[in-house]
Amino acid sequence: QLQLVESGGGLVQPGGSLRLSCAAATNTFKYYAIGWFRQAPGKEREGVSCISNTGGRTNYADSVKGRFTISRDNANNMVYLQMNSLKPEDTGIYYCAGKTVYGGTYVPECRPGDMDYWGKGILVTVSS
Fold first, then answer.
1. Apex CA 48: angle with CA 82 and CA 121, to 5°?
2. pLDDT for res 108
C-alpha cells in the first residue's frame, strides 16, 4: 500500500510560481514511479508529469514543458513539482499518484489509468 499526501497549493497570479510537494508513506518508496495529474472544472483528469522510481527518467505534458519540473528525493519519500510561469489554464486540482514498479527503472506514460494509488488532491488557482 502507498499513501500519498499533497501540499503547497494555493492562489497565485499569472506568471508566478508554486512548488507542490507529495509525501509518501511507505517503506519501499524506491519501488514506485510517481506522477502529478490535474483536473480542471468540467474537464477530465490529465497527466502533467511523471518520474521513474529511480528519478532518472521523466516525462511532461506538452502544455507544461519548459515551465514545470518534477523531482524526487527517495531518501525522504518526497516528490516535488516546481511550477513556473503559471497560466490561468493551469488552474485545477492537482493529484499525486503512484505506480508500482516490479523491477528495473520505469516511468509510466502518465495516463491516469496507469496509476495504482492516489492522493486526495490539492487546489491550485492561477488568477489575478
1. 80
2. 87
DSSP letter string over 59-112?
Answer: EE-TTTTTTEEEEEETTTTEEEEEE-S--GGG-EEEEEEEEE--SS-------G
Residue recorded with cell 508566478:
16
Looking at residues 72-96, what average pLDDT do you find? Answer: 98
C-alpha distances (whole Å) from 38 to each of 56, 75, 93, 97, 108 are 23, 26, 5, 11, 16
Q: Is 76 exposed, middle or buried (0-12, 13-18, 19+ CB in 10 A)?
A: exposed
Nearest alpha carbon to residue 30 among 69, 70, 78, 68: 78
Identify whether the C-beta of residue 8 lies closer than 8 Å to the C-beta of residue 20. yes
pLDDT of residue 66: 98
